[in-house]
Amino acid sequence: MTLPALGWQGLVVLATFGISLLIATYCTYAERVIAAFLQDRVGPDRAGPFGLLQPLADAVKLFTKEEFFPAGANRALFVFGPCLAMITALMSSAVIPFGNFLKFGDTEIHLQGIEINVGMLYVFGIVSLGVYGIMIGGWASNNKFSLLGAIRAASQNISYELAMGLALIAVLMMSGTLSLREITLQQTHVGGGWHLSDIFTWNVFKQPLGFIIFIVCAFAETNRTPFDLPECETELIGGYHTEYSSMKMGLYLFAEYVNVFVATAVMSVLYFGGFNYPFQYEFLDFLTNKTSLSADWAHNIFVLMGVVAMFAKIFTGIFFFMWVRWTLPRFRYDQLMRLGWTILIPLAIFNILLTGGLITFGVIQ
After folding, report:
1. Confidence class for position 246, pLDDT limits 50, 70, 90
2. CA proximity to 244, closest of 75, 112, 48, 131
3. What pLDDT was estimated at residue 190?
4. What is the DSSP letter of 339?
């Protein structure tokens, strides 16, 4: 890779981190609006038009609150815990392909921070590290409720990572690659004609059981309701972040929303075709042959439409996460563990065997 191309990719990585933080910031606003709508009450409407400046007001509040360290806490680890949770959440977004590549003459800019042939393995590895941020923060707080919440988070994440990994194996058996970009491109339909059947090349139609297992595990991995046992207020006050205040508390909250963003982005790539969209090649043919655009600009508009499609899928997924949070009650801890170990893992193993059989007999490819 040439030096200018390396510089462009560095900017793409920074843009990815910036977009992740911006979306996480406004997820706090969206969550309140959706909660207010579902509970038939007025949501945020004081800070700016339609309450759009509420996230900025929250940020000012968090930055200006008193920095508090509980007695007996390990100060270094108390600060390191939320920082690690935030860093790992952001790092996992670097390998997600938000679009194909833009062309400017001989220069190609890939709309993906880093393309590596083990992208899915990288996401899994980084997400697994995220639980250490919670564990360290819970232990360093010198509070039994924080420690119990952290232990819950660790056991919950380990339990559901197994089922999630097994669900992914079925997708990898079909695609034969760990590269998220390759998995996206394999869900492309290149046939002619204007029809909606393009979407049936998406993995969600070939792996419906695997998708259901994956999305249930994604709720558990991001500690979202109905699996928010690590911060269960009725039992543990605030769980692992009971003793946290100011921006350290904000880092934990933002990390949760960044994790939701990454989980929905990975789900879009693995099961919903990523940046692919119906009629895409017909649209490219229209731009190339029916308009006066140059080949490069026609290609770039075609690619940018893919980015729009990708973010539409991500925002739909985020809305679903919020809808479930304000609709379903929280599980009991024994129910959570029983679901993970006795239902999801056997189902995921069955899905692997079923996929292997269907591939062997040529039913799916």
Report:
1. confident
2. 75
3. 61
4. I
Ranking 1-5, 341-345, 356-360 by mean pLDDT, the lowest is 1-5
Is pLDDT larger for residue 149 or for residue 350?
350
Where does the chain have alpha helices with state H?
3-38, 54-64, 75-91, 119-140, 144-175, 180-185, 203-206, 208-221, 233-236, 246-271, 280-289, 295-325, 333-338, 345-360
Tokens of 40: 């038939």
**For residue 120, what are its two tokens?**
């899915």
The answer to whether 138 touches 147, Cβ cutoff 8 Å, is yes
Q: Could you read off the pLDDT of 114-137 as tens digits, one per residue?
A: 888 888 888 888 888 888 888 888
Encoding tokens for residue 360?
Answer: 């062997």
What is the phi-psi region of residue 220: left when phi exceeds 0, alpha when psi lies from -120 to 50, beta otherwise? Answer: alpha
Q: What is the DSSP string of 67-133?
A: P---TT--HHHHHHHHHHHHHHHHHGGGG---S-EEEETTEEEESSS---TTHHHHHHHHHHHHHHH
Q: How many CB atoms lie within 10 A of CB 195?
A: 13
Q: How far apart are the first and last CA of the chain?
A: 33
